[in-house]
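Researcher: Please predict.
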Amino acid sequence: MKAKLPTEDVVIHGVIADLRPARGPHPHLKWRAVLDVDSTVSGRFFDEHLTFHIHSPEKAGIVVGGRYEISLAVRVDGTFELKGIRPWNDDQPRET
């Protein structure tokens, strides 16, 4: 059985700046999305942009200009695993 590497969870808020067809690391990941990061809600994320691959914008429910909360797992080797995407706006009450 393969041991899992430890991860740290990160949650960020931002706006989708770009969506375009692009080959991802897996054959089913056919689109590249670029998120302009507004804020880091939890964990450590210091970049201004996050680029990730998805199956399709329709399946992920994202559009250019849309605001989203992105959940990531950050592995020890520094790679990211996308855990979730959900719509977000500044007016939503924050969970405590």
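Model: The longest strand covers residues 7-21.
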